[in-house]
Amino acid sequence: MSQLEDLNRAMAYIEEHLDGTVDMDVLARIAACSKYQLQRMFPYLAGVTLPEYIRRRVMTRAAQDLRATDAKVMDVALRYGYDSPTAFARAFRRVHGASPNDARRPQTKLTLYPRFVFTLSVKGEEPMDYRIIEQGAFRVVGIPSDNGTWEVEDAGEKAVDYWEKLGPRVHEILDLVDGSEPAGLLGVQFCRDGAFDCYMACVATNRPCPEGMEERIVEAATYAVFECVGPMPEAMTNLWHRILTEWLPSSGYRWESKTDVERYFTPRMTAPDSRSEVWLPVVKA
């Protein structure tokens, strides 16, 4: 079964569980990926985060029920997993710009968000160069993010803020370089049990871990490696979009639930000629 078929089965599962019983672990299993991968991939594919998509579909159905039946607002709220009429009304207004009671008035404008169906779009635009490598396990030392403040859907924006706040401490990390491979400054996204754990600016090194930093092991993996040229973060965001929407669905590979790596070669990441790489862990489909 192809990745797109798996994703469409996941969309069908959401439709069957709009009563508030969508289980993210089950959803990820149906989509044949980890929770982290599904939440990271979805905004690139759909243009909206997964929780927001589910919320919009719930409120679309709720509006249809309010228009088509005489059910009490509280009963409709309960049907879609809301114990509080206030919380239901707030979520409803956020999507439709009107209250649940107003939704019954014929002149009230409501918004319908259709169910997503994923298809392979053949654009025939720019080719994507990549190489497949076998990378053994390696040790990294660096400064992890505060994972308690991160959501996977906001990882891109959070990473930009993280790098800005890191500032001069990047040089402390680079001082640990000892010739270990892969060379260069790394941005690594670690997961635990299929869920996002932390983002970490680091280098591959065998030197002792200084106080205030952390050491981790990046497990061995097969990686698809893509070169990125252009200023951060725009160039990297665009590359991730192309990898997940163009390359991955038609590549014959699946995104493996291992560690994603970004590799930076240029000190000034915002320079127009800044060079970097994305290492995507993959397995044959």
UniProtKB/TrEMBL annotation:
It comes from the Bacteria. SUPFAM superfamilies: Homeodomain-like (SSF46689), Probable bacterial effector-binding domain (SSF55136). One of its GO terms (molecular function) is sequence-specific DNA binding. PROSITE patterns: HTH_ARAC_FAMILY_2. The keyword DNA damage does not apply. Keywords: DNA-binding, Transcription, Transcription regulation. Residues 8-106 form the HTH araC/xylS-type domain. This is AraC family transcriptional regulator. It comes from Adlercreutzia equolifaciens subsp. celatus.
